[in-house]
Amino acid sequence: MEKDSEISRSDKLFAAWQYLVPHHLLSRLMGFITHSDNKWIKLAYMKFIIKRFGVNMDEAMEQDLDRFEHFNAFFTRELKPEARPIHPDKNILVSPVDGCVSQMGLIRNGKIFQAKGHNYSLTTLLGDKGKWEKQFINGEFATLYLSPKDYHRIHMPCDAKLKEMRHIPGQLFSVNPATVRAVPDLFARNERVVCLFNTPVGPMAMILVGAIFVASIETVWDGIITPPTQREIQITRYGEGMHNVVLRKGEEMGRFNMGSTVILLFGKDKMKWAEGLTAESNVKMGEEIGTIIS
Is the pLDDT of residue 239 over 60? Predict the structure, then answer.
């Protein structure tokens, strides 16, 4: 299901400037702007995004732009429950986000396909060379890209119990298609939050990838994870006492404060992708993306 993409001159030029700019500083500045309660700033940004990207505000719980505290509150807006029904079959895996399937397919010998000419390391992506990494070798992956028009809350594909979370420091390249085609090892280079779960489909990883202008990543169990950005990998283990985190299929697990990418990992022979789902397929949160193999 891997779809090749040529690296054009424009892709290379778009990526080139990103090597020169201070990623984290720009993201902090964007965070300041998007959390400003200045009426003129927040309304200008909201109206621009709605018009430029065709945001469907009919789906939103709150439709009065004046009532959003700041632009980020609009960007991470809650939807009406009926806007994203969750597939009820317990054996069906659902999309955790609204977005586009950038790539999907087999994790081949510890390598994940990014774009034509680019694979990246499973070990590096997870920040792990141990039991978790071994459980995903020759398994399945899907890379889901969220554009500015999309719903930016992240939900669970199935019932799950959180076992470990890793905040892995890194750069903040854009994750749009042009940069993905041009920057090698992009998802294993960018800052990310790796969430490792035990589920009915076996071990599952959800990797929330940071990007330039993504002011922060947060989870429902631990709030804002980044910023601040650490120098070393931060590991938190769950499953005992107050740290017991169990989430049901369709429940919110986190959000991007500005758009980015979610990578899903499953073990070998544990699931199969939905028929017709391919690279560049558009998906909605709650709809079928795969089936658990019993």
Answer: yes
Annotation marks residue 147 as catalytic: no
Query: Residue 73 and residue 83: Cα distance in Å, rounded?
Result: 19
Three-state DSSP class for residue 65: helix
**Per this entry, what is the length of the chain?**
294
* Rounded Cα–Cα distance for residues 294 and 281 (Å): 26
Nearest to 168 by CA among 261, 234, 213: 234
Q: pLDDT digits over 68-83, tens only?
A: 998 888 889 999 989 9
155 is catalytic: yes
* Domain assignments of the chain as residue spans, ordered by start: 87-292
Which of 150, 146, 147, 144 lies closest to 56 in space, CA to CA?
150
**Predicted TM-score of the model (pTM):** 0.89
3-state helix, strand, coil in the chain (%, to 5): 25, 30, 40
Inter-residue contact 112 to 122 (CB < 8 Å)? yes
Helix (H, G, I), strand (E, B) or coil at 52: helix
Catalytic residue among 98, 128, 174, 281: 98
